[in-house]
From TrEMBL:
Keywords: Membrane, Transmembrane, Transmembrane helix, Transport
Lineage: Eukaryota, Fungi, Dikarya, Ascomycota, Pezizomycotina
Family, as annotated: Belongs to the major facilitator superfamily. Sugar transporter (TC 2.A.1.1) family.
Domain annotation Major facilitator superfamily (MFS) profile: ranges: 40-509
Name of the molecule in the record: Major facilitator superfamily (MFS) profile domain-containing protein
InterPro entries: MFS_dom, MFS_sugar_transport-like, MFS_Sugar_Transporters, MFS_trans_sf, Sugar/inositol_transpt, Sugar_transporter_CS
Domain of life: Eukaryota
Subcellular location: Membrane
Signal peptide positions (record): none
Organism (species): Podospora pseudopauciseta
Amino acid sequence: MGGADAGAGAFYDAALHKRETLMGKSGPSALIKNFRVFRIALFACIGGVLYGYNQGMFSGILAMPAFERHMGEYVTDSTKKGWLTAILELGAWIGTLLSGFIAEVLSRKYSVLVASAVFMLGVVIQATAITGVGHDAILAGRFITGMGVGSLAMIIPIYNSEVAPPEVRGALVATQQLAICFGIMISFWIDYGTNFIGGTSAETQSDAAWLTPICLQLAPAVILFVGMIFMPFSPRWLVHHGREEEARQVLSSLRGLSPDHELVELEFLEIKAQSLFEKRSVAELFPNLREQTAWNIFKLQFVSIKKLFQTRAMFKRVVVATVTMFFQQWSGINAVLYYAPSIFKQLGLDDTSTSLLATGVVGIVMFIATIPAVLWIDRVGRKPVLTVGAIGMATCHIIIAVIVAKNIDQWESHKAAGWAAVCMVWLFVIHFGYSWGPCAWIIVAEIWPLSTRPYGVALGASSNWMNNFIVGQVTPDMLEGITYGTYILFGILTYMGAAFVWFLVPETKRLTLEEMDIIFGSEGTAAADFERMAEINNEIGLSRILRAESSNTTGTPYETLPEKGNASDHSERIQAV
């Protein structure tokens, strides 16, 4: 293995061993020892519940007769129905683009407050649709709500990862994904329950049937807003903005240890090293933006993203991140989440209550199917899971297409065929839950060098929301215009996604950042990053703390970093992995 990687690996092994000695290893016991952090992260995951709730809630409302009375052609006309649904994703796309800037300027804590306030404003505007404003209120409200949802979906995982110690960070990020799926699940069942308010017929159903699911969002949003006032700032943000003593106090409180405890000192110095690394990387790449003014921070995210397109090696990463998110959305998952009752009606479940019941099952199976990915993704690898999941989803689409093509005008006499198609939708959601739901985000997050990771992830998230918006917009027209051809299109694209992952996306399981450089053709980028980090570690005293630990645990002093690693040594390791 190349010297740079060995040295860097020795350093991080030493840091890990030191933390394990002081705090214990990862796993359930680590969550118990860090229960204060776990409580804070669980509370912050209310943002994930709101995100998931919005993903699923509107599909049931669209199927309610009382809602159609107020919306008119915005429910009956497929194109306008698409706009009514997808405008949330357009708002979320804008919220995602702005969230990095807001989180850096205002802090993670205050940006959650801002995003929650924007979210609540959007919900209140949607509720005014009952007064006769109708579709205009829903359009404006969902756009504003989307801005809040998009911001929360980006900021909450950042906040959780920065308040959590390394031994529980993975579990807390996984908790966010489960919170999203939980939000989707409860939204479907709330729709099912409120559909009976006043009866299920167009003449008797109460407006409360659709107004209640919309207004219920205010309760967790208010709880999140009020609770975040009492939550700590991110220690990483405090250090990055020169508030080091406050960061020590926050770390001490989060860990339940004294400010001068060895573990608090170790974690503080690691955070400080990462902060200095980011500042010096910016100073080297964009010297005119080195001052931390609000305007420079705003410009930095855009010039950094632009730079990702300027070298062949980085552009390969851009393709992997954006195209992976393209195929995630064009698998058709959000077509199902946004229009499940309409899809089930097309499959022969004419009764609104029955179609909403079938939609509720979608939420349950998706939530359950996500759990295995959280537990085993690091053992199985990304490529096999994504490929098998894509083949499974695509096959379900093709089977549904065949069933619909044969029975589209005769569901009354072929009810078993309709239920078979419904079961294929449920199986499709299961395949998505364990594969492309969590794994696509893992790929997007881990393929970037340290110095470009925030901007690369933002680019991937931007691709996700924009394709999400397009799918939400065109699905009603496709279901009405090409009927079973919708499933053929999603199926073909998802088979293409399987081929893309298998032949063009490298396996990233257990690879170091420098090994990522080799498979993407940018050898030296991570080595240069490690050299800069080693210099900072020496400068702030982190090296002295870990020097003895490094020698004892690996036999390799991490300070011995050559200018570049040995590519052939790394290639052998990559082949082995």
